[in-house]
Every structure is written in structure tokens, then in C-alpha cells.
């Protein structure tokens, strides 16, 4: 069974250039790619945001706007598709600007050959795979595959800034496994690690796609809940408590909601931590 062709997006306002690139694709001697063409800045950005393409060829000149602007906007929106920048410019620092903006490679249009374009695509895809793996290792907890604490702090700070600037709300759950030392004493550290992984999966199973689930450290987890007030967060916490009970253990959860009296993300975490201790003091296996 043959693998499906990988899709490549070309964003270029020149139909003739689209034909040239398509003809170059037909002469590739290695992997075959399926070319899709977007002729405007707006159509190109919309297609890129879908995440349905393995790579993107992006022209510098796009009518009244340019590819550098599109590339920067795509990066701001969280697009991770590897981009190869195309331009007719042979002077200035457009190539440097493109690489700084996030492009994987840079090609001058009149120098493009099928072999050179195929090489550039292979290079961009390999580099993207390597960078994705490095990003995963830097942001994920190796035991649970959840966000690690460092990345969790960064994500929460971003959510708080959005709440501060746009009048939105965000709530947090701080989650602690009850009597986890007893799990380690009974099952050993390997059994304890297995329990941590299972609890992480249970928490993740209750979360929405927009929520961030974090391995906070040791036997603690956290969840950031955008566009969620304290009442909604409590319901999310109760769903976590119920899911973890099915594993034969319990958790205590502290809930806090962002408000204007809190200066930063740390204040929000301190409030959730205080609520967590209240849950433990009230008998554990509950949300406070």
C-alpha cells in the first residue's frame, strides 16, 4: 500500500510561478508531493492555519502585502508548518529577515531548479521534525507526556495577560494525589510512576482541547482553564475527582479564578494553593 502524497502549499500571486513550481514537482526523483496553490495573502494564511500541509512555499511579494508579514502573523497564531521563502530579490537582507521570522530555508525564484527545490523541501521537513522533537523534549514531562512545569508557567502567564488585556477569565486547578507516599511504599517507585501516568491520563481525559494539563511536580498536577469562571472550574475539578477514583486512589483539588485583585499568574497560583490545602484539611478527595 502506497503512502499518501504529502501536501505542499504554495502562496504566490503569480499563476505563472505556480505552473513553474508544479512542473518542478513533476521532475522530483525522490518523494512525490501534491501541490496546492493560494493566490492571495488572505487565502494563503487561511490555508496555512488549517495545519493540513506538510510544508509551505511562500512568496515575498503578495500584492500590497508581503510574505514576511504573513509569516510573522502565522507564527503568532501558532502555525508550525515549515516554510520555505521564495523571492525575486537578490540584494538586501530579505533572506536574513525571512529566517529570523521563522522560515526554514530561502530560495531565489530564477535560480530554482527541480533538484534544488526537492533538496530544500527535504531539508525543511527534516529540520522541522528535529525541531519538533526538541520542542517536545523541552516542554513535556517524560513520564506523563503532559506539559512540564516550565512550559506550564509560560502558558499560564500568557493566559493571564490575555485575561488582563481583554476582560476574559481564566481559572486554575491545582491537583495533589492523596497519600501518594503510601502508593510508593506499597507498590514501589515503578508502581508509583505507573500511578502518576494513569492519574495524568485521567485528568487529561476530562480536559477540553483548549485546556492545558501540566505535571506540576512530584505528585502534583495542574490544569489551566481559559474562559472558565470558578463555578465552571469547580465542575471540572469534580470531574477529575470522579475520574481518578476509578483508579482506586483520590485527589484533592484547589480552584482559583483570575480577577483584577491579583497582579500576576503567581498570585493566582497562590490562591489555588491555599484552596488546595483547604481541600486536604477538610478530608481530601474533594474540590475547594
Would you kindly provide a written description of the structure presented here, covering whatever features stand out?
The protein is of the alpha/beta class and 288 residues long. Helices cover 50% and strands 20% of the residues. The protein has 2 domains: 6-138, Response regulator (Rossmann fold, 3-Layer(aba) Sandwich); 149-281, Reverse transcriptase/Diguanylate cyclase domain (Alpha-Beta Plaits, 2-Layer Sandwich). α1 (15-26) packs across α5 and α2 packs parallel to α3. The protein is elongated. The mean pLDDT is 91.
Q: What percentage of amino acids are in beta strands? A: 15-25%
Give me the CATH superfamily of the largest domain: Response regulator
Rg result: 24 Å
By CATH, the topology of the largest domain is Rossmann fold
| Average of pLDDT | 91
Number of helices: 9
Known CATH architecture of the largest domain: 3-Layer(aba) Sandwich
What is the helix content?
A: 40-55%
How far apart are the termini?
A: 54 Å
Order of helices and strands: EHEHEEEHEHEHHEHEEHEH
User: Segments where pLDDT lies below 50 for 5+ residues?
Assistant: none
Give the helix/strand class.
alpha/beta
Outline the biggest β-sheet. 5 strands, parallel
Counted beta strands: 11
Instruction: Give me the side-by-side strand order of the main sheet.
Output: 2-1-3-6-7
Shape: elongated
- Oligomeric organization of the protein chains: single chain
Number of domains: 2
Give the C-level CATH assignment of the largest domain: Alpha Beta
